[in-house]
Amino acid sequence: MDVREEMLNLIRNRRAGFSLEQPFYTDADFFRLDLDLIWYRDWLFVGHDCEVAKPGGYFTVQVGDYPIVIVRGRDGEIRAFHNSCRHRGSRVCAGERGTSARLVCPYHQWTYDLDGALVFARQMAEGFRKEDFGLKPVACETTGGYIFICLAEEPADFAPFRTLMAPYFAPHNLSEARVAHETTIIEKGNWKLVWENNRECYHCAANHPELCKTFPEAPTVTGVNGAESDPEMLAHWAKCEAAGLPSRFRIDPAGQYRATRAPLLRDAVSYTITGKRAVARDLSDRVALDRIGTLLLYHYPTTWNHVLGDHAVTFRVLPVGPQETAVTTKWLVHKDAVEGRDYHLQNLIHVWTETNDEDRRIVEENAFGIRSPAYEPGPYSEMHEGGVIQFVDWYAAFMESRLADSATSHWRNVA
Fold it and tell me: What is the rounded distance in angstroms from the CA atom of residue 254 to the CA atom of residue 398?
C-alpha cells in the first residue's frame, strides 16, 4: 500500500468526532501530501497590501519548497512571483522585505522590472531573448486589505471568498492601516495541531489568563456552535448591522472560510488587560460605533483574524515541516497612529504575545504526547470543540476528495 492509499484508507475509516490517527500529525510522507494537495493548490494568505504601500515595496514568504516574492508595481498592482532567478535559480530577493526600483539577482545581476519582466542580463549570446525569461508569476489576489496567493497552475475561483469577505472588511479600511508590530514563532507541532488548538476555547480558562479578561469562552462566539440561537450574539449582530457593519455568521459551503462579529466580555473594547482601548485613534475613520467587539475571519489553511475598533490582529500559519509550524502575528493600527502618543507598544501587543506563547507550549506538549506509541485518537467535546470537529471534517473531506481524484487519474493513466 503506497502512502496515498494509506492516508485515504485512514480518512475513510476514521471515527467521526475523534482526533486523527498519529501519522497525520507526525509522518513526513503524510506532510508531503498535505503540501501537495492543500498548500500547493489552495489560496493562501501571505500579508497585507499596506505592507507594500508604494511601488517597489516587496516582501518574501516561503511556502513549503516555494520561495515567493510579493511586489507592488509602478502601476499600483500587487503581483507575486516565484523568487527564483531565471538564470540559474538563485533567490532574487533574499531579505524579508524592502523597497527597490527593480529586482536584481545578487548572483549575476540579472535584473527584473516590478512586473517581472527581465530587463537586463549582461553578456549573453546573440539571439538571447529577454522576453522569454521573466520571473514566473504566481496567482495573486487582494481583498479587504489582504493578499492571497495560489501556487496551482489553475487556481480555484477567488470570487466566492471575495464576495463573502469584502463587505465585512470594507468599513475597517485595512488598506490604509500600517503594521505596528510583527512576530513569528516556530511551534514544534504539525500545522493541523496549531489549527485544532485555535479552533476551541475549551482550554482557555486554564491556559490564557490574559485573553480571558476580554475574549468570551462561550463556544457560540466563533459561529460554529449555535451562534444563531445565542441571544447575546443576535443582539450584537443587530446593533452592529444597524450601524452598517456586516456581522452575522457566514460560512462557505465547503467550510473552508467564514466570518462573523462577536462581542467582547462586559464593557471591554479591546484586547488589553483592562479591556480599555490599546490605541487612542480608531483603526478606521469609517466606523463610528463603540463596542463593536471583534470581527473574526477564518480561512483554512493559513489565517485567523481579529479586527477591533482600535486595531487588528492578524495571524498567518505556514508549515515548516511535519512537526514544525511558523505562526506570524501582525498588529495593525491606523496609518497615522503614532507610537508613544496614540499607543504604547507593550500595551498593544501584551495580550496576544502572552497568548501566542501559551498556545505554543500547548501545541508542543500536544505534539509530544501524540508521538507516543500509546497514542490513539480521542473524542472531541461536542459542546466546546465544535470548531475543531468542523476543521478536522473540512481537512478530511478535502483530502479524501483530492486523494480519490489523484488515484482515479493514476489508474486511468495506467490502464
Answer: 9
**Residue 389: inside a domain, yes or no?**
no
User: Do 139 and 183 share a domain, yes or no?
Assistant: no
| Mean pLDDT of all residues in 304-308 | 98
Q: Give the model confidence (pLDDT) of 205-240 as tens digits.
A: 999 999 999 999 888 887 677 788 889 999 999 999
Report the chain's terminal Cα–Cα distance, integer Å.
19
Give the Cα separation of 318 and 67 in Å (integer).
Answer: 12
pTM of the model: 0.96
Helix (H) or strand (E) holding 197: helix 191-198
4 within 8 A of 406, measured Cβ to Cβ: yes
State how many domains the chain has.
2
Domain span at residue 256?
A: 177-370
Do 233 and 334 reside in the same domain of the chain? Answer: yes
Residues 297 and 354 in one domain: yes
Nearest 5°: the CA angle 308, 310, 314 is: 50
Both 97 and 231 in a single domain?
Answer: no
Give the chain's length. Answer: 415
393-402 pLDDT per residue, tens: 999 999 999 9
Q: Do residues 196 and 296 both lie within one domain?
A: yes
Does the pLDDT value for residue 184 go beyond 70? yes
Report residue 78 as a C-alpha cell: 500587487
d(CA 146, CA 178): 12
